[in-house]
């Protein structure tokens, strides 16, 4: 039987009786698991993503962004390949991509890291201020907020606005970040922990828009100047209740609200489409292509 250990070293600086400055290092090794299967079962995806994201941001200061993204992909492939080599006979699934249940979202989050403003494209594709701000956020955010920052929450809200207020929270479900989930007749909310983005489908009934925004789009073409507030109607009250509910889930930050209409360029591309992690963007793969690429590399 063998054990997997965690080793921790702590240096202590002190002065000897003769006046010499010395460093004493205390090293401790603690057994964690007796086999790798237990380690994989107990793996914390959030902690792994947080660590890899911080390392990637640090590496981006000295390496090319493309090299940083390749390093992330290589680490993912190595971890899944190791798991496959250990358990492919046990699972008897031949050429399939296999991974532990605890890491089922790891490929998606690694792709999301590669598509963040901090690591996306080349140095000229994102302004320096935005890239630095995104990288700083990834370095300081706690795990839960970091996951929501790199893979924002997308909700369809027009279908729940007519429900009873006490039932809205239970029916508010997260959607995959892909354009296929967006209906032209729907009202959607994207939450990355810093901003609420309200997306209006082009076929959304004007009455619904007027009730929620409190203005007519025909008389208010510049949506960047709209200030969301509670209006005197049930739809508006329910909509603001949803915003309050999401803010109360993490009161450490008050999300600002922005409104964008389908087809409103370039605001739609910058605010929404660039956050659809599972879709193909300029120079990046879709999630389907990405997972197929990871699959091929784990087989080699």
Automatic annotation (TrEMBL):
- Signal peptide extent: none
Q: Which domain of life is it from?
A: Eukaryota
Residue ranges occupied by any Gelsolin-like domain in the UniProt entry? 175-219
**Cellular component aspect of the GO annotation:** COPII vesicle coat
Q: What is the protein named? A: Protein transport protein Sec24-like
Q: Which organism is it from?
A: Zea mays (Maize)
Where the record annotates domain Sec23/Sec24 helical, the positions are 44-147
List, in alphabetical order, the GO biological process terms annotated in this UniProt record.
endoplasmic reticulum to Golgi vesicle-mediated transport; intracellular protein transport
């Amino acid at each position: 039987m063998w054990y997997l250990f965690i080793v921790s070293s702590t240096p202590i600086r002190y002065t000897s009786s003769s006046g010499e400055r010395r460093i004493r290092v205390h090293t401790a090794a603690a057994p964690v698991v007796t086999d790798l299967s237990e380690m994989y079962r107990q793996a914390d995806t959030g902690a792994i993503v947080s660590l890899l994201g911080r390392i990637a941001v640090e590496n981006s200061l000295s390496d090319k962004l493309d090299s940083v993204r390749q390093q992330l992909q290589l680490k993912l492939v190595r971890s899944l390949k190791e798991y496959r080599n250990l358990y492919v006979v046990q699972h008897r699934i031949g050429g399939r991509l296999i991974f532990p249940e605890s890491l089922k979202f790891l490929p998606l989050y690694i792709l999301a890291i590669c598509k963040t403003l901090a690591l996306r494209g080349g140095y000229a594709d994102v302004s320096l201020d935005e890239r630095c701000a995104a990288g700083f956020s990834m370095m300081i955010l706690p795990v839960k907020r970091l996951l929501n920052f790199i893979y924002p929450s997308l909700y369809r809200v027009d279908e729940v606005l007519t429900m009873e207020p006490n039932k809205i929270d239970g029916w508010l479900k997260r959607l995959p970040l892909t354009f296929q989930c967006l209906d032209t007749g729907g009202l959607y909310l994207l939450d990355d922990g810093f901003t609420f983005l309200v997306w209006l489908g082009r076929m959304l009934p004007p009455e619904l828009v007027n009730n929620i925004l409190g203005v007519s789009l025909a008389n208010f073409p510049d949506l960047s100047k709209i200030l969301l507030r509670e209006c005197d109607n049930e739809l508006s009250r329910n909509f603001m209740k949803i915003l309050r509910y999401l803010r109360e889930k993490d009161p450490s930050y008050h999300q600002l609200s922005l409104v964008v209409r389908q087809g409103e360029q370039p605001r739609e591309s910058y605010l929404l489409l660039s956050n659809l992690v599972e879709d193909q963007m300029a120079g990046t793969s879709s999630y389907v292509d990405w997972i197929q690429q990871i699959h091929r590399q784990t087989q080699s």
